[in-house]
User: Fold these one by one.
Assistant:
Number 1:
Amino acid sequence: MSDYNISRVSPDDKRTNKLIDELLSGEGIRRDKNLDYTCAMFDEDFNVVATGSCYGNTLRCLAVSSAHQGEGLMNQIMTHLTEVQFSRGYFHLFLYTKSSASRFFSDLGFYEIVSIDNKVVFMENKRRGFYDYIDRLSENKKTGKTVAAIVMNGNPFTLGHLYLVEKAAKENDVLHLFIVSEDVSLVPFEVRKRLIMEGTAHLPNICYHDSGPYIVSTSTFPSYFQKDEKAVIESHALLDLEIFVKISKALGINKRYVGEEPNSQVTAIYNQIMKERLPESGIDCIIIPRKETDGSVISASTVRKLIKDGDFSQLSNYLPPTTLRYFKSEEAEPVIQKIREADQVIHY
């Protein structure tokens, strides 16, 4: 056990952050753009010999200098980060790692959820966490010849979303609607969930599910050991599909509906990978052209832009009555203010 010190690193500490970047780079890792806590371990000369970070309930950017590997430093970094996470109220922890390092983290009490192409492994600190989640989903299992699924963020729920859900519900015996519960959107999860359920309440064959921590948004998927942004998108899509296939087997899902997104590079790559990979697991991937109004596609990005610009007169062209009623209510004022203050409301 080393006697090196571990301490939190402030974003304003330019010297230490530069040393961390150099350490990460030396280990083939880039600093992730989403971090809310970073620590470093220092030797007697105040050089950084190990580091680790957190974002929400995940551990990220874990590295030990090659000159100090084998000294048990990562065990100490992991202990420190776990204590920090517990103190912040996060007890169910997740990490992403290279396949070559997964055995090491297994020895530290993390369990594999899925791995993709011998590149990325998604792990958690609960032995049966993912399987318990699938068991809970199975409690709402409904049988049918055609069982479809949609994964939806709904930030906010639009007429475009409604069109997609109505089409899938009409064409199938059962529709499982997974609502992304990660709370990183401008519209909070509880509001998104309520508006989705209110807007689709007339469809009797829908089973609603919270996505939990397993269906991860592109905004929080880590980029720190991916060579470029395209590789990040591809890895996220492949990981998401591995998880989705396991869920589908438990629920008997044989179709997945997604909306076409002509203005989004991320969605275009994601949809293409789904179109190629899902049939290999016996699941049809059905890409639905986006619903249009006045010659332009209906998207949540457009709605957020209208709200940001204070242009409420056009919202009725994009929103179902339930969502429109919410944004005209006093309850929506904090969300409207948050959208107006956001630097970026359009996702590419």
Number 2:
Amino acid sequence: MLMRTDPFQALDRLTQQWFGSGFGGGLSRSAVMPMDAYRSGDEFVVHFDLPGVSPESIDVDVQNNVLTVKAQRTTVLDKNGEKVETIISERPTGTFSRQLFLGDTLDTGNIQAGYDAGVLTLRIPVAEQAKPRKIAITSGTGERQAINA
């Protein structure tokens, strides 16, 4: 039921923390897509921080229980659509991607996504067959008792 992240992505993030950049000198340390994930009742909720990203540039898909979130932040342009002279650039630009491996007990066909104030929120329901249920037990006397499964 728990969601796991890609171990190689976690290794790359650890490398970024120690050396200041990913393998091959790629994106800077701040170029990660931070997230929080937790269970709330019968669903998992995942928040991705994507400040300054246009909702149209966000792509979320699920294939074989792998959820992939891709987003793109473009460089700053002036009102005529031309690049501006950059003085300081601490916010990374380009394409960001993050993958989560979802357990078989989640209902990947009913994921809901919303984007507000730079935060992408995904709600992933627990599959009906994975929810706790009561199972009736009959005793030798024919008496029925209910217990929690």
